[in-house]
Structures are given as structure tokens and as C-alpha cells.
Amino acid sequence: MEKLMADLKVQIIEQLNLQEVAPESIGNDEPLFKEGLGLDSIDALELIVLLQQHYNIRIANPEQGPEIFYSVRTMAEFITAQQTAKA
Amino acid sequence: MSSGTAYITASCIIRDHCISRNGEVVLEADKGLDLQEMLRAGYDRFSGQYPKFHKMDTLSKLGWLAAEVLLQDSGIHQLPPEAAGLVLSNRSASLDTDLRYYATVKDIASPALFVYTLPNIVMGEICIRHGFKGENTFFVSDEFDAALLGSYPAQLLAETPLQACLCGWVEVMGQQYDTALFLVENKASGLSIPLSPKALGDLYQTGK
């Protein structure tokens, strides 16, 4: 899980062009939207693209979005659960 | 038609990896840098602390950076938001970004690129940065149209609530770019050049 979260931080920075953000400055449990990294609705769409491109995961239920993308940890937990279900 | 006098009070030209303000070179970037690297150097020199810059397309970065340099020490931020507007123009519209977006459609379409597939988005980015809410218009023409850009902003200043207007040319296609922004106001300050097509054309040609 720690390795996955570290990878996700790098991928998020690259996907969202957060060029002034260092991976280590993103907390595992820090909210990604609003008060955290301050991401917006377009960023949310880019995170969906990130999951498809890097992990071949499609979000079937859009209403899950806020829960999945709450933090790096919730994203990592979702990816892990999806990969486990596929295995 | 317009009445009253409008003045060109400031200029910013970004061309050949040089940024000039009021005719004076304020940044000469290494010619070996690509366009993105040059724009980043300009951002680091004149702004910083605006992470949204890195998400913009090249057209928006060019216009945004030119406005950043142009409006340094300007009194425009003292005006009501509705009193500041923009009239911009270019040749390629948003084609540079349209092609980049089209390339992503073959795989997974990029939402971040899609939102920049209109040329007037650059004006939105400038308005968000500076809080402008006045009239704005984007024209597409083959070349810098001094007659249009020297008269339409004057008309806006004379006949609408606008008291200041950014006008000029923001063009990019691949690594080819050319940007010339001018601040036009209904009160003389700074350069204080009476606005006319010839005056604007002469300023645009400076350094070409």
C-alpha cells in the first residue's frame, strides 16, 4: 500500500501538471479537493483518466467518485480492491 | 464611432525568446530553450505562486504571461471590475491545442486539453487572474490588424463602461509564436501614446 500511494502521488502530479508540488508534500490522508490540493472538476476527470491509463480501472458508478478520490489513501484502497477482485 | 482620446499606456511583446515591456527587454531567455521552457522561465521571473499556470495550454500561457508583465505597476486594478476588458486576436485560433487534443482522442480524450479548445479561453484566464469583468472579444485574422485593434478598443472606451482595455495579438502554432499586448486607457499615463492604427502598428513592428 505504501508503494502504491507513493506511485500515485507521482502520477497525480504528472497527470494534473502540479509542477510546484513535491510528492512528499502530499499527505496520504490529505483531502485532494477543496482545502487539500485544491483540485477542481476538470482535475477529477483527469483522475478518472489516470485510473484508466495506469491501472485499467473504469469507475462504474460515478457517485462513488467523491469517496474514491477523497485522498491518496482512498484511491490506493480502491485500486487494491479492484485488482484483488480481478485476480 | 468613437469619440474622445484613448492612449496606449503600456506594451509587452514576447517574441524570439525575449520579453519586452514598453520597448525595453526585461527577459532574454536562452535561445536553446523550447517554448514551454521559455514560458516557465518567464513565469518564474515575473510571477510564480499561481499553480494554475502550469495547467494552461500554450496560447493561454503566452497571453497570461504577457498580461502579467504588461500590468506590472499599472493602475488597472484600482478600476471597477466591469471597467477592464480585452480585445485579442490571432491567426491560428486554438488550433495548436485542438491538434493536441485530437491526438488524445485516439486513446483517452484529455479533459484538461478539451477545456482549452477555444481561443477565447486565454482571455478567461487573464480575467480570472486580474478580476476583470468587462467586455471581451477575440478576433481571428490572417495577420495583426492594426486598423481593427487600433479602432475597436477606442470605440469600447468611448461608448461602454470600459476605462481600460488590453488589446493585441497572441499567436502560437507549435514552436512558432508571437505575442504583442497593449494596455489602452481613456486617461494618459505610462507611454501615453494616442491610440491610432499607425501607432499600434508601429509598436507591434518594434523588434521584428
Task: Give an overview of the whole structure.
The complex is a heterodimer of chains A (87) and B (208). Chain A has 4 helices and no strands. Chain A is mainly alpha-helical. In chain A, helix 1 (2-15) crosses helix 4. Chain B has helices spanning 35-46, 58-70, 95-105, 111-114, 121-130, 146-149, 152-159, 197-205, and strands at 7-15, 18-21, 24-28, 84-90, 136-140, 164-173, 176-185, 193-194. At the A-B interface, helix 2 of A face loops of B.
Main attributes of the structure:
heterodimer, A: 87 residues, mainly alpha, 55% helix, globular, B: 208 residues, alpha+beta, eight-stranded mixed beta sheet, 8 helices
The biggest sheet of chain A amounts to:
none
What is the CA-based Rg of chain A, rounded? 12 Å
Helix/sheet category of chain A: mainly alpha
* Biggest sheet statistics of chain B: 8 strands, mixed
Element pattern of chain A in H and E:
HHHH
Helix content of chain A: 55-70%
Distance between the termini of chain B: 31 Å
- Shape, per Cα inertia axes of chain B: globular
Tally of contiguous helical segments of chain B = 8
Quaternary class: heterodimer
- Which band does the percent of strand residues of chain A land in? under 5%
Secondary structure: helix percent of chain B: 25-40%
DSSP summary, beta strand count of chain A? 0
What is the number of helical segments of chain A per DSSP (H or I, 4+ residues)?
4
The radius of gyration computed from the alpha-carbon positions of chain B, rounded to a whole number of angstroms, is 16 Å
Distance linking N and C termini of chain A: 17 Å
Element-by-element helix/strand order of chain B: EEEHHEHHHEHHEEEH
Rounded average pLDDT of chain B = 95
Mean pLDDT of chain A equals: 92
Q: What is the general shape of chain A?
A: globular
